[in-house]
Write a structure and sequence with these properties.
single chain; 6 helices; elongated
């Protein structure tokens, strides 16, 4: 009788563990459930909300005022939009790693930041 009880308990234990393991499998994708939280939103790129901050954090430290590096002043919308519409900004931020003219030096802008710049430039580089 004891052997039968042990076999029954062992069988129940196995079935319980098996059932728990199957029911705990979860195949939903995080992005499907919550959206891609790292997605690059370019639907409403504006100078005031996106581009000004991007340039300020990555470019303006060297490219501002009378002593702007390389003679490129990126302080203010007028200067930034002129450099953007002439192709200067995209030329420098899209260069290959290791190119001495890649800007900012040391680390390229993210794909998202490049896409935001391109979107804003394609819209005519407005002061919005």
């Amino acid at each position: 009788m004891e052997c039968q009880t042990i076999k029954t308990l062992s069988g129940l234990f196995f079935v319980s563990i098996f059932s728990l393991s199957i029911s705990s499998c979860y195949y939903d994708n995080y992005d499907d459930l919550y959206g891609n939280v790292n997605a690059c939103d370019t639907a409403a790129v504006t100078f005031s909300q996106d581009i000004k901050m991007l340039i300020g954090q990555n470019c303006e430290g060297c490219h501002n005022g009378a002593s702007a590096s390389g003679g490129l002043n990126l302080a203010g919308h007028q200067n930034i939009s002129s450099a953007a519409l002439s192709g200067t900004i995209m030329d420098r931020v899209t260069r290959d790693a290791g190119d001495p003219l890649l800007m900012p030096p040391g680390q390229a802008l993210s794909e998202c930041d490049q896409t935001k710049l391109r979107t804003w430039i394609n819209a005519g580089a407005p002061n919005n």
